[in-house]
Design goal:
This protein is mainly alpha-helical. The chain has 15 helices and five strands. The protein has a three-stranded antiparallel sheet with strand order 3-5-4. A two-stranded antiparallel sheet has the order 1-2. The radius of gyration is 32 Å and the shape is extended. The two termini are 49 Å apart. Residues 1-47 form the F-box domain.
Length: 310
């Protein structure tokens, strides 16, 4: 942890509690020590064990940077539904509200409040609640998880930016002062302005998609580089094994048998004069290496050291 290691563990835990979930993921990727400290944090350990699906959901829809570990822990410890005060069994990951099943299903709700917890696309929020692009940028949003939606056999959907419907409604009321004013504004909206808004929203979505594609290419490039380095290392190991086998006077099959049954570090320690260290077998050992070393002589093991040396 660098200079943070000088701090007591209690202060480090306080710092971790104030970090967002995405910041914790980045901290865990720093080194093994940071990984162990974060995983040993009491709150993170409890959430990871009892509500791991919440962490997976936050990472999947890209909202992990909007809530700290302490705030998430407090939300998960809530005992009542945000809407009705009944038992809560779910969490709305856009605004981090604890809800019950009935409230999520929009039961017993007024017409204008229907689908309160059903997100909508950015342009739909502009059309439905008369928002401007400046107000739209301030709303809680997330990225819809890519997959196959709509009619069967359709093309796969990429990440789509969605906004919270209830926040969009409240922003519209704040902007236009009443629900009736929102309805009047949307009914008489200028088509040219809406067309301009739609064009800008689509342009921002294309830019975000291009940025995600660049990140995916960089990630793929790193994976390819890692695979090439790993394969290169394997080729070096195979070449060294072959050279050692030749110096030992063994065939490839014999060398593989020895490598599976005894520790190769006793066989292939090179010195400055490129000699091979010996491995002293006992007469009680019944490994294939012993049989090869004896070359049919099972009375003693005096010839074994000669077999494993030049």
């Amino acid at each position: 942890l660098g200079n943070l290691d000088m701090l007591p563990l209690e202060i480090i835990n306080e710092i971790i509690s104030s970090l967002s979930i995405s910041s914790l993921d980045q901290l865990k990727a720093t080194n093994r020590r940071a990984f162990e400290v974060v995983n040993a944090h009491p709150q993170f350990k409890t959430i990871n064990r009892q509500a791991h699906d919440v962490l997976r959901g936050l990472r999947a829809i890209k909202t992990a940077d909007r809530i700290t570990l302490q705030a998430l822990f407090n939300k998960l410890c809530a005992s009542v539904c945000y809407e009705c005060g009944d038992f809560r069994g779910y969490m709305y990951l856009v605004t981090f509200k604890r809800l019950c099943c009935r409230c999520i299903r929009d039961k017993d709700r007024r017409l204008f409040d229907k689908h309160k917890y059903v997100p909508l696309r950015e342009f739909d929020a502009v059309m439905e609640y008369g928002l401007t692009l400046e107000v739209l940028d301030t709303l809680p949003r997330f990225l819809g998880y890519p997959g196959y939606y709509g009619r069967p056999g359709g093309p796969p959907k990429d990440y789509v930016s969605l906004v919270d419907r209830d926040s969009a409604r409240n922003a519209g009321i704040t902007l236009h002062s009443s629900i009736q004013a929102i309805q009047d504004y949307t009914a008489n909206a200028d088509p040219a302005v809406l067309k301009l808004y739609k064009k800008e929203i689509k342009q921002s979505e294309k830019e975000a998609q291009a940025e995600r594609a660049k990140c995916a290419c960089r990630k793929k490039s790193k994976e390819i580089t890692y695979i090439k380095k790993r394969n290169s290392y394997k080729r070096v190991v195979i070449r060294r094994r072959t050279e050692h086998a030749k110096r030992l006077g063994l065939s490839e099959n014999e060398f593989n048998i020895i490598g599976r049954n005894i520790n190769l570090e006793f066989l292939i320690k090179d010195t400055n004069n490129e000699s091979i260290s010996t491995y002293a077998f006992t007469s009680q050992e019944s490994t294939p290496a012993t049989n090869i070393g004896n070359k049919g002589n099972t009375k003693g093991n005096s010839d074994n050291s000669e077999y494993f040396s030049h």
